[in-house]
Every structure is written in structure tokens, then in C-alpha cells.
Design goal:
By secondary structure, the protein is of the alpha+beta class. Helix content is 30%, strand content 31%. The model has no long low-confidence stretch (mean pLDDT 92).
């Protein structure tokens, strides 16, 4: 494989490539349970929201500095008790798949999750995406359940498979003090 760099994503520089990767997945796979291609404005807002909340957005650049994949994580659920759990996403350009790029992105996301003192990473994978499931298992993620027929796309019901990786972090988990009475 040619030289690959994993860097912080620059939406101004790589946004159109990111958009093309996501929209290809939306239009041609069941890996994203969305029907409509995203607009540049929607993608920019998504990335900005991740960054504003302190979450990473990373890019895989080839030797020509073209974006060929990206990854991010964000909140798993929005209740405070889930604050140590994140859900991640990894996208790789169609022609660059099966070359280890997703694994390199996932490696970096795991490191960033540890550095951020998160405890659990969750991946939600369409059951048809066997390559992603195998990759996650190779990193120690465990299948923790399948939600049958929770999605509908391309004329069929879709199953979402949940994978989790429990990290040794945080070193000092805390709960905020309770407010008020009983």
C-alpha cells in the first residue's frame, strides 16, 4: 500500500471528497440507513457539530494528498450516564476498500477514544457489511446484539448489528452531584 497519512480532517480542503464517499454509500449500499444524498451544507454542519462538541474527525490521505477515507465518533446516546460511551463511523472510498485504510482509521479512533477518557466504543454495522464486522472483531470488538429489521432500504428490511469495544479508560469516572431533594 502506498504511503497513507491519518490527519485531522480539513472540511474546506476535503469536504467534497467526504461528501462523495458518504453519498456513494447512501446511494449504493445499505451501510448508511439514509435515502437522500447529503448536501455540502449538511455535511459541513455535521462535521462542525462534531468538532464543536470536542469530537474528532480524521481523514486518510493518499500519497497525492487526496482524501480516501475518514472517521469520527460522537455521543452514543444523549443522556448524561452515557458520557463515557461513543459511537464511531468509518468511511472508505469505494476504490480504496480492502487495503487496510479502514483499519488504520479505526486504530486512530481507538487511540483518540482512550486519550479522551472514553470507556466504550460502539459500532453499528449493517448485517450485510461482513468486511466491517470482521475488521471490528480483529480489533477486539465483540458483537453484543442484532436489532432485526430496524431499517428499510432498497426494498428490504435491514438488520443492525452492534459491536462494542470496552477500553480501560477512564482512570477516574465521575458522576455529577445530584441536584435537590429526594
Amino acid at each position: 500500500m502506498d504511503a497513507l497519512q491519518i490527519v485531522d480532517c480539513d472540511f474546506e480542503r476535503h469536504g467534497l471528497q467526504m461528501l462523495a464517499i458518504v453519498n456513494d454509500a447512501i446511494e449504493h449500499t445499505t451501510w448508511v440507513y439514509d435515502y437522500q444524498p447529503r448536501t455540502a451544507q449538511a455535511m459541513a454542519a455535521y462535521i462542525d457539530a462534531r468538532r464543536s462538541a470536542g469530537f474528532p474527525v480524521i481523514a486518510a490521505l493518499d500519497d497525492r494528498q487526496a482524501l480516501i477515507g475518514f472517521g469520527t465518533f460522537g455521543p452514543f446516546r444523549h443522556l448524561p450516564g452515557y458520557k463515557y460511551t461513543v459511537e464511531h463511523s468509518v468511511f472508505v472510498e469505494k476504490s480504496a476498500r480492502r487495503r487496510g485504510i479502514g483499519a488504520q482509521l479505526l486504530t486512530r479512533l481507538i487511540t483518540l477514544a482512550r486519550d479522551g477518557e472514553y470507556h466504550v466504543m460502539i459500532g453499528v454495522i449493517d448485517s450485510s457489511n461482513l468486511a466491517s464486522m470482521v475488521m471490528h472483531e480483529s480489533f477486539g470488538f465483540e458483537c453484543c446484539g442484532t436489532l432485526s429489521e430496524v431499517g428499510y432500504k432498497h426494498g428490504r428490511w435491514l438488520d443492525a448489528v452492534f459491536y462494542q469495544l470496552v477500553l480501560e479508560t477512564p482512570s477516574n469516572p465521575v458522576e455529577p452531584p445530584r441536584m435537590g431533594g429526594a
